[in-house]
Amino acid sequence: MGTPIMVPKPRRRPLISPELVQQLGFILPLSATCYSALLAALIARGFPGSTALIVMIELALLGGCAIVCFASGLVQQDWPAILLGYGFVVAAIVVSIIVGRPMIETLRAAAIIALFFMLGQRISYQTLDRLFFWTSVIVLFFLVIEIASLQTYATIFQPANFFAATRGMEVSEYNTTGLSNSAAGFASRFSFGLFSGPRTSSIFLEQVSNANFACVETLYLAVRGRELKRSALFIQILTILLILVTANSRFGSMLILVILAGYVLFPKLPRVMLPLASVAIAAGALIVIFHNIDAVGDDIQGRLSYVGRHFRDADLGYFLGTHAVQALADADSGYTYFVGTTTIFGIIMLWLFVNVTPRMNDAPSRRLGWGLIFYFFGQLLVSSTSLLSIKTAALLWVLVGCVRLYGNGTTSGKGSVFRAR
Asked: At what angle do helices 274-291 and 300-313 cross, to 10 degrees?
């Protein structure tokens, strides 16, 4: 068992009550996860949607997090997030001057990570358990509808029209389902062969975030699974399994296998090995890339080689932000996206934050720390913007922040309405 850690005392008297902090700590990340589904349902019934509306909603959510964090009082444990935010602001200003365009995307990424991480350090395990339980119930409810009656699901959300209205993504002429353009599979795409319909999206409206949610929930269960009632645990495991077999996620399946395999091993590994894991992930990717750097296709070799070619063709200016606008247009280029938009110093700051923030002095936090490394840096090999989607990133960083504060749960896990009896 880890050493209990006391709830940090703010440097000044909080402006809001602890009860309100817990309520907002539940409402804000839940809203971040669900708002796009609610908005899609409204747009499907004639409500005017736009990119500006999405921006306003996310600003309101991030602003709410900032108000909670500052009104409850800053604490010493907030400094890693504050420094990350400060570093990204500086990087955004410098790159904006270089390219002559405001790098709002960089500021958004830093705000999502830092503010939800700080919010997580202000909620109890009881609030965290409630957040993940009800999120799972909502996701599972609409996932079952999508599996049982695709037409009903498409009628409720009309994902293709939602993305057309809010992202400017035109509906493909071959898309007759009303789902997102990427929902349909194809012959060479990975599949478990257990589900023949389009890849599922649930409340996330697209498949990548749906699979990412399964990964984040698995990280949560690695920390809190033993503390939950059997009914809550069953619902969340069922949600994960249904997502995996219907979204046909390669990365999600591999990550969950890694977390299961490491459930016993991770708590025994020393913290000093944590940074080496991200280096080992990159080294393994390089081996695959060099095997056939010109490979093309939607498999592991093809995706990694795509990233490898970007680095091969990059000049010094790319690492210093001179090609940020071009990098923004290539959202699936993984590490090269982050390097191109935040400079090499931005990816170093992110690497330090992910490696330093896990508590790593008890079994639950070590499971999360190692799982976070594999999830974040593994995902960066083949994707980038999906990691920053507020729909799943809010839950991830609230989880990381909460576990960093409470570790094995000896100070705040007791009394949870979802605690095992």
From this structure: 90
DSSP for 351-376 reads HHHHHHSS--SSHHHHHHHHHHHHHH
Closest CA to 61 of 389, 328, 350, 385: 389
Ramachandran sector of residue 360 (left: φ over 0; alpha: ψ -120 to 50; beta: rest): left
Dig out the tokens for 79 from the structure: 């400094």
The DSSP string of 306-326 is HHHHHHHH--HHHHTTTTHHH
Tens-digit pLDDT profile for residues 199-224:
899 999 988 899 999 999 999 999 99
Reference 158, options 42, 48, 40; nearest CA is 40
**Percentage of the residues of the chain whose pLDDT score is greater than 90:** 45
Of 216, 205, 258, which is closest to residue 42 (Cα–Cα)? Answer: 205
26 falls in which pLDDT band (50, 70, 90)? Answer: very high
SS3 state of residue 103:
coil
Cβ atoms of 115 and 69 within 8 Å: the answer is: yes
DSSP states along 173-232: TT--SSS-TT-S--TTS---SS--SSPP-GGGSSHHHHHHHHHHHHHHHHHHGGGB-HHH
CA 13-14-15 angle, 5° bins = 115
Give me the pLDDT at residue 219, please.
Answer: 95
Reply yes or no on whether the pLDDT at 267 is more than 60: yes
For residue 9, the one-letter residue type is K
Separation CA 186–CA 279 (nearest Å): 33
What b-and-e string marks burial along 17-45, b requiring 16 or more CB atoms within 10 Å of the CB?
A: eeeebbebbbebbbbbbbbbbebbbebbe
- Write the CA distances from 254 to 13, 132, 211, 258, integer angstroms: 46, 22, 11, 6
Give the distance from CA 138 to its chain's centroid. 18
Name the nearest CA neighbour of 143 among 214, 220, 58, 192: 214
* DSSP one-letter code for 419: B
Structure tokens at 380: 């960066």
Element (H, E) at 32: helix 18-43
**Mutual orientation of helices 363-379 and 207-224 as an angle, nearest 10°?**
160
**Tokens found for residue 130:** 């409630």
